[in-house]
UniProtKB/TrEMBL annotation:
This is Signal recognition particle protein. Residues 101-295 form the SRP54-type proteins GTP-binding domain. The chain holds residues 1 to 295 of 449 of the full protein. One of its GO terms (molecular function) is 7S RNA binding. Composed of three domains: the N-terminal N domain, which is responsible for interactions with the ribosome, the central G domain, which binds GTP, and the C-terminal M domain, which binds the RNA and the signal sequence of the RNC. Belongs to the GTP-binding SRP family. SRP54 subfamily. Residues 100-276 form the AAA+ ATPase domain. Residues 1-86 form the Signal recognition particle SRP54 helical bundle domain. GO terms for biological process: SRP-dependent cotranslational protein targeting to membrane.
Length: 295
């Protein structure tokens, strides 16, 4: 698979050993390798360029500590900058509210893994002692509603749906149902299309306006590369969402989308979906993702 960035740097920076300072000349090779590794990990070009510049500035003039090699030092700088660029701390979803239930709205393109994630999140919250309700607001696709029902049955979480093709009505009635049945979190699975279109965006905006969700999560397939960043930007411009869910992270990806999206939309990544099973959901930790990108 990939040669890890740490290994590449060890190799490239051999000549640096014995030198006391990192300077413009001896750092050039390392920067090229870092750039290459980030691009290989699917980080957006502009993000990569800025990131490498940041690392270069940090590294220049650093005294090489006797106990570590220059390569190790640069790897450490890259690691720390990656963690910082991805938000530093792990960010939880917001469920704090005085009303019942707390509302989580889930948005994203069709095929992104939105419905699967919705069920995974309900499963996770249930395990944490919450009483979730899943609401099928993707009213245009009967298959999506059926899929949610199947997943709900698997995890023992009720699914609310209506016959009419009215997403707002489905969501509002679902929230009312949650209230009456002592469910303290309502997770609304909204409609997705294969591509961004005005109607979908307008509907999502309307849902946000009418429901005032405590949390809006944007779901995106990490395998679609640069498109992930563009899609995130469009959704964020319209919805000003609270967090990102990167799906299909079990695929052949180093996870550069995490760095790109965080940099471009400046919203925290909150979850990673790493498989098709309802348990394959992980909380996002910038530290772990930095390790993964570094290899
Ligand atoms: P939606 O159209 O956005 O609601 O997407 P779905 O939840 O229906 O997912 C689309 C396809 O991707 C389905 O076949 C899912 O089983 C699959 N899928 C969803 N999440 C993941 C994931 O994290 N990893 C993998 N490998 N497949 C996933």
């Amino acid at each position: 698979m990939f040669e890890s960035l740490s290994d590449k740097l060890e190799h490239a920076l051999k000549k640096l050993s014995g030198q006391a300072k990192i300077n413009e000349i001896n750092i050039g090779m390392a920067m090229r390798d870092i750039k290459r590794a980030l691009l290989d990990a699917d980080v957006n070009y502009k993000v990569t360029k800025n990131f490498v510049e940041q690392v270069r500035k940090q590294a220049l003039g650093e005294e090489v500590i006797k106990s570590v090699s220059p390569a190790q030092m640069i790897v450490k700088i890259v690691h720390d900058e990656l963690v910082k660029a991805m938000g530093g701390e792990q960010k939880d979803i917001n469920l704090k509210t005085s009303r019942m239930p707390a509302v989580i709205m889930v948005a994203g393109l069709q095929g992104s893994g939105k419905t699967t994630f919705t069920a995974k999140l309900a499963n996770l919250l249930k395990k944490k002692g919450r009483a979730p309700l899943l609401i099928a607001a993707d009213v245009y696709r009967p298959a999506a509603i059926e899929q949610l029902k199947t997943l709900g049955a698997q995890i023992g979480v009720p699914v609310f749906s209506i016959e009419e093709k009215d997403a707002l009505k489905a969501a509002k009635q679902g929230i009312e149902f949650a209230k009456q049945n002592s469910k303290n979190v309502a997770i609304v699975d909204t409609a997705g299309r294969l591509q961004i279109d005005e109607e979908m965006m307008a509907e999502a905006e309307r849902l946000k306006r009418e429901l005032s969700p405590e949390e809006i999560l944007f779901v995106v397939d990490s395998m679609i590369g640069q498109e992930a960043v563009n899609t995130a930007k469009v959704f964020n411009d319209r919805l000003d969402f609270d967090g990102v869910v990167l799906t299909k992270m079990d695929g052949d990806t180093r996870g550069g989308a995490a760095l790109s999206i965080k940099t471009v939309v400046d919203k925290p990544i909150k979850f990673l979906s790493q498989g098709e099973k309802v348990d394959d959901l992980d909380i996002f930790y910038p530290e772990r993702m930095a390790q993964r990108i570094l290899g």
